[in-house]
Amino acid sequence: MNILDSELIQNQLLSSGYEFVDQAEKANIVLYNTCSVRDLSEQKVLSRLGVLKKRKDQGEKLVVGLLGCMAERTNTDILEKNPHIDLLVGPSRLGEIGGLLHNLRGERKIALSDFRTRKGKSLEHEPMDSLEALDAARLTGSKALKSQAYIRITRGCNKFCSFCVVPRTRGPEVHRSFESILNEAKSLVDSGVLEITLLGQTINHYPEFAKLLREIHDQNPGLKRLRFMTSYPRDFTDEALDVMASSERICKYLHIPAQSGSDQILRRMNRGYTREQYLDLIRRARERMPNISIVGDMIVGFPGETEEDFEASLSLIREVRYQNIFVFKYSPRPGTVADKRELDDIPMEIKKLRNNRMLECQNEVSLAEHQKAIGSRLSVLVEGYAKIGSKLQARTQGDQIVLLEGPISLIGQLVEVQITQASALSLTGMLSSGLPPEALA
Ligand code: SAH
Fold this sequence. Notes:
Transcription Regulator spoIIAA; globular; about 40% helix; alpha/beta; binds S-adenosyl-L-homocysteine; CATH 2.40.50.140; Rossmann fold
């Protein structure tokens, strides 16, 4: 979500005539788009703000902006210790940054946030329009389009998971119109985008989600891959699963966080489902799509998590056989129910230990699953160079990483590879049909 927001902000500013530089040190305006999900993310931003403060103290003319969830969460309180911040913009007002920067002069500071607590004002309209403008900005922005793109279909979240700050920073759930989503998809595909990922905090809550998937798929034959994230384990309809199964170009991929495998922890997280109900959804998905990739999020060290609760999460991982999981050490967030009602009683050392044990458990599952792919032929989208070594990095429709040798011209293309090797983190393959004609041209 933040990657998309940053991209849209960039487009907005480019179309207002701003130029971008590749290092913060060279910039006259530095904007941080922030995340509040864990304390660690906020600490990183604070330390970078410290560096900017030094520059300003030394007399450099610099505009400093704090954007996104942290601006919303801390609001003007953050100015007490960070008076060098000139601009604070919460996630609901990101569409207004161009104008705000323009109006920023001299000593005046601007803080624009908080559609939830702003008193006496109706929430829905203003921020919505501002965001609709932001989402639409990409279509007029001059930044060259890539082969992959995100489209936001829902903003905010109506779930109140006891650990999570998102509903407080991104506000209540608001769905974008069918029409604006379909228009955005069409113009992206027309400009050469091959893969679209639809975004929402609880994406399956979009009204008539199955119909939306089918229409984007059917109206855009040029779209090679359609995926979406993040799904909420409840309210996932059979109809949506059927559309996924029957539409060839919809990725057989579900990012569907369990957070824990223990019923008593799930209850205290206010997740609204049991382990068995979660597993039932996975079964319904696999009945229709035996090869579907399931990706999850897990939290370790939630208050009161016993060794037994933790073991239940490990056994869920083995039972679901995730393609990948994201593991988070519980971090108390101000204002959340868990922070008010529970004691953060699992010591950091135990959290770290459980984090590592969980990753090891997932690695075993991933390695076994990846080994099954050796010898098979898969279609992959080449994304760029791998972080280490000289190979290209590509992804399968199930979001597995595939490393392969090939020319730079393959970047942004779909190619067929024969899988030759597997590790827990990635697959290695070779082009199975020679170079595609576009790459030779
Ligand atoms: N609705 C989104 C949530 C975004 S936050 C989703 O379902 O993916 C992404 C992940 O961060 C969550 O799934 C959760 O695993 C993790 N997370 C959220 N709050 C957390 C906290 N207080 N401590 C640790 N991890 C947290």
